[in-house]
Every structure is written in C-alpha cells, then in structure tokens.
Specification:
Blueprint (H helix, E strand, L loop, with lengths): L22 H13 L10 H15 L4 H12 L6 E2 L2 E2 H7 L3 H6 L1 H14 L6 H8 L21 H19 L4 H9 L2 H4 L2 H14 L8 H13 L10 H19 L5 H15 L4 H13 L20 H8 L1 H9 L6 H8 L21 H15 L11 H10 L7 H12 L1
Antiparallel strand pairs: 1-2
Helix pairs in contact: 2-3, 2-8, 2-11, 2-12, 3-7, 3-8, 4-8, 6-7, 14-15, 14-19, 14-21, 15-18, 17-18, 20-21
C-alpha cells in the first residue's frame, strides 16, 4: 500500500482557501448551536445567549479587542466539554440547579476540565481553554473544579459565570420579570459572582433591556449576527494547518459521541485523500476532500446522538433520523461562508451509483466525484470496523464487498482506484 504524503496539503497559501475573517465566529457558533439541539431538534441557544450577555458585560468593562474576542469564543465554547452521547450537560444543570448538587454530579463537575482539555491542544486557543476550564469557579472559592477564589479566577471566566447562571435560571424558573430574576440571583450572588460584574449585569437588565436581546429565537439570531460582525479574526484559525487541526478536533468529537469506533472520520479522510491523489486531482481539491471527510458526520451531533450507538434494531423513526445526518451536516456548514463546497460534497456522500441512496436519490455522475470517493472510503471503514450491527471484516472481504456493489452503491472507477491503492 503506497501512502502519498499529506503534509504539503496544509502548506497551501491561506488565500487559496477563501475563508473570510468571520469564519471562526460563524463556524463555531453554528457548530455549538447544533450540539445543543434537544431530542426534538429544538434550538435552545444556551451558549448563544450566554455569549450575548457576556459580551454586553465585557463592553461595559471596556475590555480591549483581543479580550473581547477571547470572551466571545470562550463563552460560545464554554460547554463544549458537556456534549454527551445521551444529551447535554445543560439538561443536567437545569435538573440540578444548586451548586452542591452540581459538584456532586460527575458529568457536571468534569465538563469544564473536559472543555479545557479539548481546546488546549491548539496554541491559539490556550487562553480560551483556560477560561472555559474555570467558568464554574465561584468568587468565594466554593466553585469547581479547581476551587479558585476572587481575582485568581480569570476575568472572562467571572463574566461567563454570571451569564451562564442567569441563562440556566431563566430556563429553570421561566421568569419574564427582570426584577424577579435579579431578586432570585441575589440570594447567592455574593457567593458565586464578582460583585462588580454582577452590578454591571443588574444595570444592563434594568436600564438597557439586556433580556430583550435574548427573548426569542429571532432576537437571538439578530443579536448574534451583529455581535459576530465585531469578531473578525485572522489569528485563531489563520492557516490551513490550524484549520486542519481544528477540523480534526471536530471530527474526533463527532466520532467519540456517535461511533463505536474512534477516529472513523480521520480514517475516511486518509483513504479519501489517497484515492484523490491517485486520481490526480489538484491539491486544493484534495484538501477540500480531506476537510469534507473530517466533517462528513458533523450532522450526527445534532439532535438524538444515542441512536448511533444503539445495538438493537432501529425503529423506522430512528432510521429516518440516521438518514437525515447528511442533510443536517449540510445545513450546519452551508450557513458558514466559505464552506459551501465542503457542505455540498458532504450532502451527497450517501448517494448510490444506481440512484437508491439518500438524501436526493442522485445517480451516477450526477453525484459529485468527491462524494463518490468519500462514499467508498466511508463504507470500507465501516466494513473493517466493529459496529453494533456487524463484526469487522478483513481487507480482502471488505474489498470483495465493495466490488460486489459496483454500479449499485459505488462508482466502478473509484472502487478500481481504491483496489489498486490497497494492493500497491
């Protein structure tokens, strides 16, 4: 098996990638919103609302531009460590709103540290990861996971603590009256909140209509749209190499939560890139295929994630949910400027050569070549991995199964190239 080097793909000039300065804010916000969909596919906007409130407080504190960006991304990603197979840490926080109960619940207690660990692998996310890791610390030192106190807690973490607690309280108590929520929070504000930050929050609620910005889905979308205009960034995801590592992180989150085999998307990317090299596609297109492969299952993070780990036979409704994941992936990514081509390739990676696939039943060359390549790589990795519905097969059996389904599921030319790659 001849392996073609992939390192040079990440050396392409960033200008060739055509991602705008709003890319980081756009991608991360849509990714987080998808992760927080409830089992009924309802958008709850928890992190968006926390981000909007936190940034309003940050402006009142006259944070500099760099600190404002760190606050934006940290508040958007503050619960990334709480995305679970069977739900989200937000569900637990609304069920266990008291601090003692939260510290006693392992999944709640550990999610700040998990988020810090996930984000800390990126040099450009180091400060953000520290903020995420300390966003449940209380001003009096009784928070978690580190028990930090007062000014030992990063300023952005103290801001997020207020915004996060407010949003959870709004969910738990369904309070519409600003004075009522302020009265409710005042019971424990001296323990949990930096008094200066809490005073700014109270002023924003009473005098500047802070809650108006988050009172409905439409208002939240509008507020976030305006906020993201201020978050143009050429640093966090500033190069193909950084983007590559970021997309691999997203792929790992999706695989760890929705696949019985870790690193599925990374293997699909490896195999797809090797086929693309053999088919002599240009390097920019190969890089696009690589990233599409990393992100091809991102739609599985939206809604009911547990169905992908289920060992019993799926119900008709569950099977429809599984089949919806290419469309969901497309819907997430197509909202991000610069991701339209990647979203397009992902949308069709489960289309079959004979038109029997999904979501649109495309046939033959109507299916993008990149999607046909990813389909073969995805199927091969599924066949050669242990899944709830079958035991893994060896290379020869897997290749035989691919060839048996040529002109039904798979493009014969792609399977031929893949066969040569495996046998080389």
């Amino acid at each position: 098996m001849t392996i073609y080097p992939q390192a040079r793909l990440t050396q392409l000039p960033i200008q060739e990638i055509e991602f705008p300065s709003s890319f980081a804010a756009d991608f991360i916000s849509e990714f987080v919103k998808a992760c927080e969909l409830d089992s009924s596919d309802r958008e709850i906007y928890h992190s968006w609302k926390v981000c909007i409130m936190a940034c309003r407080i940050g402006k009142k504190l006259d944070l500099d531009r760099n600190s404002m960006k760190e606050l934006f991304f940290a508040s958007m990603l503050h619960d990334i460590g709480g995305v679970m197979v069977g739900g989200h840490v937000i569900d637990l926080l609304t069920q266990i709103p008291d601090a003692y109960g939260q510290k006693s619940n392992f999944r709640i207690f550990v999610h700040p540290h998990r988020g810090e660990t996930i984000l800390g692998t990126f040099p450009t996310f180091r400060n953000i990861s520290e903020i995420v890791g300390t966003h449940h610390e209380f001003y009096d030192g009784t928070g978690f996971p580190k028990g930090l106190k007062g000014d030992k807690i990063p300023l952005c973490s103290r801001i997020i603590r207020v915004a996060d607690a407010v949003e959870i309280a709004l969910q738990v108590h369904s309070v519409n009256d600003p004075d009522e929520i302020i009265s409710l929070l005042g019971i424990f504000s001296e323990e949990e909140f930096d008094p200066e930050i809490y005073e700014i929050f109270v002023n924003l609620v009473k005098n500047e209509g802070l809650f108006d910005a988050i009172k409905s889905g439409e208002e939240i979308e509008n507020s976030m749209r305006e906020l993201k205009k201020e978050m143009s960034d050429h640093h966090l995801l500033s190069s193909p190499d950084t983007l590559n590592r970021f997309f691999k992180m997203v792929a790992s989150i999706a695989d760890n939560l929705t696949s019985s085999e870790y690193n599925h998307s990374l293997r699909v990317a490896e195999l797809s890139v090797q086929m693309a090299y053999l088919m002599k596609l240009n390097e920019s297109e190969i890089l696009t295929i690589r990233w599409a492969s990393f992100l091809h299952d991102i739609g599985k993070l939206a809604g009911n994630r547990s169905v992908y780990r289920k060992r019993e036979k799926l119900t008709d409704e569950e099977w429809l949910n599984v089949k919806a994941h290419p469309q969901r992936s497309y819907d997430i990514l197509n909202k991000v400027e610069g991701m339209d081509k990647i979203a397009y390739y992902i949308l069709y990676h489960h289309e079959n050569q004979d038109g029997s696939g999904y979501p649109e039943g495309l046939k033959g060359e109507k299916i993008p070549l990149a999607s046909r390549i990813m389909h073969v790589a995805d199927a091969y990795d599924a066949i050669t991995s242990n899944r709830p519905y079958h035991r893994k097969k060896q290379q020869e059996e897997a290749l035989s199964e691919l060839k048996k389904n040529v002109n039904k599921q798979f493009d014969p030319n792609v399977v031929e190239v893949f066969s040569k790659f495996l046998m080389s």
